[in-house]
Design a protein that fits this description.
507 residues, mainly alpha, Fumarase C, Chain B, domain 1, 2 domains, three-stranded antiparallel β-sheet, two-stranded parallel sheet, 21 helices
Length: 507
């Protein structure tokens, strides 16, 4: 079944299905009616000679310039071409598809003012695989993502550059090969195509999906480390966490109890009274990341189903209002707080790695190898984790507290949300690497406990890892091992193996 676009019920999972799995888009019947009603209103207002921002006036600092109806039509093309001013590497195709999916959904609410035929051609670009080439840097996250959305709109007009079936083509040629005709924009369509937060929103949908899986892999990595370190389990008792009922904290403690169930290692006497904070406080340190993920998801799904244009039209009242729903501050802050949450997973993971490698703290061979001195074992894997953790500290600085005035001080407060998102993507990449090192070292540590078996979660994870990475009994290059485990994380193979064994790790 196609993903129904009705302006109200789109989810991050729907966007992922379209952007990554090729699901088709289709407007609902109600949304078709709303789009047509709004466009009729604009035509009527233009005929009456009403002053409408971006339709019969200039835009930004030039909003006081009154245009004739003929100039208003020409303005729509000029808006798109003049605002297409980005720079840098291409955005991944999936991010462009996600942005286009989100953009169609805001039109479906019927307050944006474009023709149904224009909206459908845009939608068919997604359905038929015409993906505009969009550069990564150009949006300040206010007045929406003007520059990247303009690069998308250029292709709709038969200009710009797109990919189609693996080829990089001119926009007009890509449309022709897909059986589509370029659009000649009419009143308000220039702004309707480019004024919104949908590039940020589309990117965040994909990031939230990936971050959710990284959080689950973080739970698995933690359980492996805690099992190998012969942790004292009493601090994870559900009665403890019921007395401080943060949702994420309770979930982490519950998952750790489930993952570690059946561990023969933990049943053996250890003589310990308690563990260090990075072990004992794993639920309290890890749990807030889950809470922040839910805050970010709620923010993005609200934005995904909102009207973020300017001006906004109200067909039932025959009214229009120039306002500021395009401002990207909610998305910028959501990205920034998730940056902090994901960076904290890395902080905690690196501390687990350190304890696994330190014989004084682990009770295991130094750096998890026999013959330390001649062998360095997994010593330097911690250096690599430390590099990524340190980088995350820099990247976690909130971009959304910054602002640079643009458009001759008309747009004098901006969100810098796209900067936050670029940093968040790199933090997630680092998270994959650090968790791979934690899983790699924990698997090595668990093998030193043989014949005692770990809990059912760590056991399932170790078995998947051992299919790609052998136990280290003598020094060898570690980077292929780290890469192999990172690929097991990214592909979902570790998560699937563990969830097949213990059930879904819901967050």
């Amino acid at each position: 079944m196609p993903v129904k676009i009705d302006g109200m019920g789109l989810t991050i999972d729907d966007v992922v299905d379209v952007a990554r799995h090729g699901e088709r888009l289709e407007f609902s019947d109600d949304s078709v009616e709303r789009i047509e009603k709004c466009q009729k209103m604009i035509d009527a207002m233009v005929k009456k000679g009403e002053k409408i921002y971006g339709v019969t006036t200039g835009i930004g600092e030039l909003a006081s310039v009154i245009l004739s109806p003929e100039q208003g039509l020409e303005l729509q093309k000029k808006i798109i071409f003049s605002h297409s001013a980005s720079f840098g590497d291409d955005l991944p195709e999936e991010e462009v598809k996600a942005a286009m999916t989100a953009r169609t959904n805001t039109w479906a609410k019927g307050h944006s003012g474009l023709r149904l035929s224009t909206a459908r051609t845009y939608m068919e670009m997604v359905n038929k695989g015409v993906t505009p080439v969009v550069y990564e840097k150009g949006s300040v996250g206010c007045s929406g993502d003007l520059s990247p959305l303009s690069q998308i709109a250029e292709v709709l007009l038969g200009e710009g550059t797109a990919t189609y079936k693996g080829e990089r083509l001119g926009g007009g040629e890509a449309l022709r090969k897909a059986g589509l005709e370029p659009v000649v924009p009419t009143y308000k369509e220039g702004l309707a195509l480019i004024n919104g937060t949908q590039v940020m929103v589309g990117q965040m949908c994909l990031i939230l999906n990936d971050s959710r899986d990284l959080i689950k892999n973080g739970l698995i990595a933690s359980s492996m480390a805690l099992d190998a370190l012969h942790t004292v389990m009493k601090p994870f008792d559900e009665r403890v966490h019921a007395l401080r009922p943060h949702k994420g904290q309770i979930k982490v403690a519950g998952h750790l109890r489930n993952l570690l169930d059946g561990s023969e290692i933990l049943k053996a006497p250890s003589g310990k009274v308690q563990d260090g904070y990075s072990i004992r406080c794993t639920p309290q340190a890890f749990g807030p990341t889950i809470d922040l993920w839910h805050y970010a998801r709620e923010t993005i799904e609200i934005e995904l189903n909102s009207v973020v244009d300017n001006p906004i039209f109200f067909p039932d009242e025959m009214d229009h209002i120039g306002a500021g729903n395009f401002h990207g501050q909610p998305i910028g802050i959501a990205a920034d707080v998730l940056k902090i949450g994901m960076a904290e997973i890395c902080d905690l993971s690196e501390r687990h790695i350190n304890r696994l490698l330190n014989p004084t703290l682990s009770g295991l061979p130094a750096f998890l190898i026999e013959g330390a001195g001649m062998n360095s074992g997994m010593m330097v894997s911690q250096y690599t984790a430390a590099v990524m953790v340190s980088e995350n500290k820099v990247l976690s600085h909130p971009a959304s507290v910054d602002s640079i005035s643009v458009s001759a001080d008309q747009e004098d407060h901006v969100s810098m949300g796209p900067v936050a998102i670029r940093h968040l993507k790199e933090i997630d990449r680092n998270t994959t690497g650090v968790l791979a090192i934690e899983m790699l070292t924990a698997a090595q540590a668990l093998d030193f406990h043989r014949p005692l078996k770990p809990g059912k979660g760590p056991l399932a994870a170790r078995e998947v890892i051992r299919e790609k990475v052998d136990f280290m009994d003598d020094d060898r290059s570690l980077h292929p091992d780290i890469k192999a485990v990172a690929e097991l994380i990214s592909s979902g193979k570790v998560l699937k193996a563990v969830e097949d064994e213990v059930g879904e790790l819901t967050i």
